[in-house]
Amino acid sequence: MSGCGGAGWWVRGRRAxxxxxxxxxxxxxAAIAAEPAIIARARAFVGEEAALNALRSVRYTGTxxxxxxxxGAKPSTVAIEIVFQHPxxxxxxxxxxxxxxxxxxxxxxxxxxxxxxxxxxQWRQMALPVDAVRRMRATTWSNLxxxxxxxxxxxxxxxxxxxxxxxxxxEKIAFIHHPRISYHRYFDAATGRLVLTETETGETIxxxxxxxxxxxxxxxxxxxxxxxxxxxxxxxxxxFDTIMTNEPLPAAQFQAPLQRPx
Length: 262
Known about the structure:
Layout: H1 2-34, H2 37-46, H3 49-53, E1 57-68, E2 76-85, E3 89-96, E4 99-106, E5 109-116, E6 123-127, H4 130-145, E7 156-165, E8 168-178, E9 181-188, E10 194-199, E11 204-208, E12 211-213, E13 216-218, E14 221-227, E15 233-245
Antiparallel strand pairs: 1-2, 1-15, 2-3, 3-4, 4-5, 5-6, 7-8, 8-9, 9-10, 10-11, 11-14, 12-13, 14-15
């Protein structure tokens, strides 16, 4: 009797699991059907669905050059390493001279640590403010999800019509992560290529060049134009030397160290 009962429970459990999976599949299919058609074209431009769906982490290494359009200002160059890891982890290390700055997101927590490479007794560490954490969560999603599924993360997508950008007819899509954090992305209506991104703060972001890794197109260079506190233009050019995918960092690397030198 107990054996039959156990078997019946297993069969019912299997049926429930199958039904649950079917429900998820239907919900996913419905979400894709409801999204703007340009998103499918944009995803197809950067890679096949299998490659995009299998993406769990991305590691970028390269340099960042910052130029302030002010008299006497000199460009500054920083070596960087950035990791975006599914579902909501980001790890960014910047090195300039003897100083290293590490900025990390782990779910709903974020922290920053600045220390000297020569003397690790010289350091300071702080928790990130809420909006900085929200921003890092948004950039992590953007770098891994490729514009699909924002609704499942509490955001929404809006179609904002067409606009000509750099001589290209584009479809303008708003990705609203939070009332204070949104990205307007302009996709080539014909090919799906991302032409321009604007943030709610007025920054513009353009991608240039190409590095192809495991079937996915990544930009070689990302140029961000913004304004400093005095309203003067600032250009930040991020150039990648290497890009690696699906080589995840261990969970411990996202945990804030104890408040003492390592």
